[in-house]
Amino acid sequence: MNLSINSTFELNNGVKIPVLGFGTWGLDGKKAINTTTWAIETGYRLIDTAFIYGNEVEVGKAIRASDVPREKIFITTKVWQTDMRYQKTFKSFERSLKNLNVDYIDLFLIHWPRKRRLETWRAMEKIYEEGKIKAIGVSNFTVSHLEEILSNSEIIPVVNQVELSPFLYQKDLLDFCRQNKIQLEAYAPLTRAIKLNNLVLKEVSDKYKKNPAQILLRWALQHHIIAIPKSSSKEHIRENANIFNFKIKKSDMKRLDNLDEGFRAVEDPIFD
């Protein structure tokens, strides 16, 4: 699999999504503008935000101020759990559209699988059918959540965005998503830096002359998983994109796979 920062994966509705994205959780104000700008300048074309992050306006400003045409940038945002009702979902979408100051959103996700998720999904299906969104998906959904959607909906989610790393491999979820043509997307792929000093990870990073964060991101891509690392450092944003000039061997991928210990840097999804 020869990948570059310009590479894409094809979603189940034919839309192409960049293999590497920039996450903006925890970034606000000028920091959100600056980091998004640095990411775009580095070559990132997938920008991930959410209403609850409080930075849609700033992310939109950075995108519009860049030299990159809007159609070349893939914008993801999400409906928050307090807006998870049929009519409120439409209002949530329009608010995000206004905040970002764009004509359409590439990917709209249910942020957490809380109550009223099915009526929220029906509203998202309608927005999608009206052509205001290129694709719709979910975030933090377990296999049970996905089975519920698949049994009660017309449209299959294109993406399930979840916390995922070698330390939280979620192999059963990955296999289920592959079987149902749902693209898995990893947030907190760097474990929020908590596991970067792991001995095995450091041994693998030394072998390939890459830092532990780069190994974690490359691991995700080689499993055909989109990674959306976040950083407020220009240097780290650039380093995180420098993962396309090497490939981890199968034996080392297995070593990384075996690091799975169910570790979560973010809360565990709750089934309501």
In short:
The protein is α/β, with parallel strands linked by helices and 272 residues long. It contains 10 helices and 10 strands. The longest helix has 15 residues, at 86-100.
Annotation keywords:
272 residues, alpha/beta, 8-stranded parallel sheet, two-stranded antiparallel sheet
Task: Write a structural description.
The protein is of the alpha/beta class and 272 residues long. The chain has one domain (8-193, 216-247): NADP-dependent oxidoreductase domain (TIM Barrel, Alpha-Beta Barrel), CATH 3.20.20.100. Helices cover 40% and strands 16% of the residues. It is built from ten helices and ten strands. The strands form two sheets. The chain has an eight-stranded parallel β-sheet with strand order 3-4-5-6-7-8-9-10. A two-stranded antiparallel ribbon has the order 1-2. Strand 7 (133-139), helix 5 and strand 8 form a beta-alpha-beta unit. The longest helix has 15 residues, at 86-100. The model has no long low-confidence stretch (mean pLDDT 97).
Output the strand order for the largest sheet: 3-4-5-6-7-8-9-10
Helix-strand topology string: EEEHEHEHEHEHEHEHHEHH
Total number of β-strand segments? 10
How many separate structural domains? 1
CATH class: Alpha Beta
Low-confidence stretches: none
Structural class: alpha/beta
SS strand fraction = 15-25%
Number of helices: 10
Query: How helical, in percent, are the residues?
Result: 25-40%
The CATH topology is TIM Barrel
> For the CA atoms, what is the radius of gyration?
18 Å
Q: Describe the biggest sheet?
A: 8 strands, parallel
CATH architecture designation: Alpha-Beta Barrel
Globally, the shape reads globular
Distance between the termini: 39 Å
* Arithmetic mean of pLDDT: 97
CATH superfamily: NADP-dependent oxidoreductase domain
